[in-house]
Amino acid sequence: MEEVPCIHCGIFFIPRNRKQNYRCFPECQKARRAAWQRNKLQTDREYRENQRISNKKWLQNNPGYWKEYRRNNPDKADRNRTLQKVRNNRRLSPATHSTTSKPNLIAKMDARKSSDGKLSGQYWLVPLFAKMDVIKIYLHVITGSYK
Ligand SMILES: [Zn+2]
After folding, report:
1. Phi, psi values for residue 138, rounded to 5°
2. pLDDT, tens digit, 9 for 90 and up, residues 7-25
3. Beta-bridge partners for 121
4. What whole-number distance in Å separates Cα of residue 30 and Cα of residue 16?
5. How many CB atoms lie within 10 A of CB 44?
6. What's the 77 CA to ligand 1 centre distance in angstroms?
7. pLDDT at position 27 over 60
8. Which domain-ending residue is among 14, 44, 62?
9. Most C-beta atoms within 10 A of its C-beta, which of 34, 71, 86, 103?
10. Can you tell me the distance from the alpha carbon of 22 to that of 5, in angstroms, rounded to the nearest whole number?
11. Separation of 56 CA from ligand 1 center, angstroms?
């Protein structure tokens, strides 16, 4: 069979059958399962409800988990906070979904670093349409001439 690129990492591999879209690599299989669950949560109401109940029970047995998680993963907490702002923004103004809504494309993460009016700082690049992951980018303003 012909080599195809893995949906997760883009590395080419030989699939076992026509339906295999992810490499056997553990990271890729993890991504495959996550994608399956994302889809299941979106399309299966019963599954979604069971997951909600299950998560609720688990959280009752593990109080303070998310508080601890945010403390141990400040970077991920910042990312989630930023994404929630983007979601809230979209909910409030659905019209900004159009292609002309450039301001929504980049959500600024760390305002402290650019308080002097420059663009330098850390940003989360949030795709508006494509189902792809959010990535963190760093912008550094280069002062002086480019010549
Ligand atoms: Zn892969």
Report:
1. -115, 125
2. 999 999 999 999 999 999 9
3. 139
4. 18
5. 12
6. 26
7. yes
8. 62
9. 86
10. 8
11. 32
Residue 35 Cα to chain centre, angstroms: 12
pLDDT digits (tens, 9 = 90+) for 36-75: 999 999 999 999 999 999 999 999 999 999 999 999 999 8
57 and 115 assigned to the same domain: no
The Cα 124–Cα 82 span in angstroms is: 8
Residue ranges of E strands in 51-113: 106-108
Distance CA 79, CA 1 (A): 40
The reply to whether 85 and 54 lie within a common domain is: no
What is the distance in A from the centroid of ligand 1 to the CA of 31? 8
Question: What is the domain count for the chain?
Answer: 2
Instruction: State in Å: Cα 26 to ligand 1 middle.
Output: 8
Query: From CA 89, how far away is CA 80, in angstroms rounded?
Result: 14
Could you report the per-residue pLDDT of 93-112, keeping only the tens digit for each?
Answer: 665 454 444 444 445 555 44
| Average of per-residue pLDDT across 84-95 | 76
Q: What's the whole-model pTM score?
A: 0.51
Q: What is the Å distance from ligand 1's center to 124 Cα?
A: 23
Amino acid at 124: W
* Residue 113 CB-half CA count within 13 A: 12
